[in-house]
Design a protein that fits this description.
single chain, mainly alpha, 8 helices
Length: about 270
């Protein structure tokens, strides 16, 4: 890549970063104006932390050890908040099944195990590709966390879809569910692409793609989340038959997970 092309890409990334900060600000204001903060307080907190750290990192953008430490702290903090965001979203999903009770915890545990196994099995080890082991570790953690979360959100949808359980979801929930899944998939793809290509000039086009995707998703959240999207004409309870079917499927999935290591060992013989 020639120096002129690299400079142009860096400049584009700079302005995309600014545009993303503006879009995040608009989304935060939108959630306050539509009075959705009480419904999604952890999501709002995550956005505020993303906004503040984004501004700080933009101002302090320089290849120094202080900047690297600041970026690692950002990854740790947002990583914790991402877990909170998905837990909050999962609880909002389960609120639409008033008869689900404590089964939500069993379902979450099973889907988490399946998602973790798929995530760690889908990508071979990439540690040691960079000359910065600590930085590599943080990027690997981000990649796996984002993939596990995305697979979990998709897996919960698939679980209820296969059981043909169709409650009257709030529109905001469906919007948040779908966009969040795409958001974490983009984050996973970004981290994975950096890990495979290394800390070279290719990182800048990869960042451009991520910034464009994130900007589009933040704009989508801003446009489609609204006070009206919280309206719900009827909250459907699970019938005893449906609840029994959910519990049976959960037992089947649990038994499958427990026996999976034995199946893998047997196939390797």
């Amino acid at each position: 890549m020639q120096h002129a092309e690299l400079s142009a890409i860096i400049a584009i990334n700079y302005w995309l970063w600014i545009a993303l900060i503006v879009a995040q600000t608009a989304l935060i204001v939108r959630l306050f104006r539509e009075r959705l903060v009480r419904r999604y307080p952890i999501f709002e907190t995550y956005l505020i932390v993303e906004l503040i750290t984004g501004v700080v990192l933009l101002i302090a953008a320089a290849p120094t050890s202080s900047y690297a430490n600041l970026y690692r702290a950002y990854l740790v903090l947002t990583g914790i908040l991402r877990v909170g965001v998905v837990c909050e979203l999962y609880n909002r999903i389960c609120d639409h099944f008033s008869g689900i009770g404590g089964f939500r915890l069993r379902l979450a545990g099973v889907v988490l195990l399946v998602s973790a196994l798929l995530a760690f099995a889908s990508v071979p080890a990439v540690a040691g590709r960079w000359g910065y082991p600590v930085q590599t570790t943080f990027i690997i953690m981000t990649q796996y966390e984002s993939e596990i979360i995305a697979v979990m959100l998709a897996g919960v949808w698939l679980f209820f879809h296969l059981l043909r359980v169709k409650p009257y979801y709030r529109r905001n929930l469906l919007v948040h569910w779908r966009i969040a899944t795409l958001y974490f998939l983009v984050d996973c793809a970004h981290a994975l692409a950096i890990l495979w290509t290394g800390l070279g000039q290719t990182v800048h086009p990869i960042n451009t793609a991520m910034l464009v995707a994130d900007l589009g998703l933040v704009i989508a959240w801003t446009v489609f989340l609204s006070k009206r999207g919280e309206e719900l004409s009827e909250l459907r309870s699970l019938s005893p038959d449906k609840l029994e079917a959910l519990e049976q499927r959960g037992d089947e999935l649990t038994e499958f997970i427990i026996g999976l290591p034995r199946l893998i060992a047997k196939s390797l013989k």
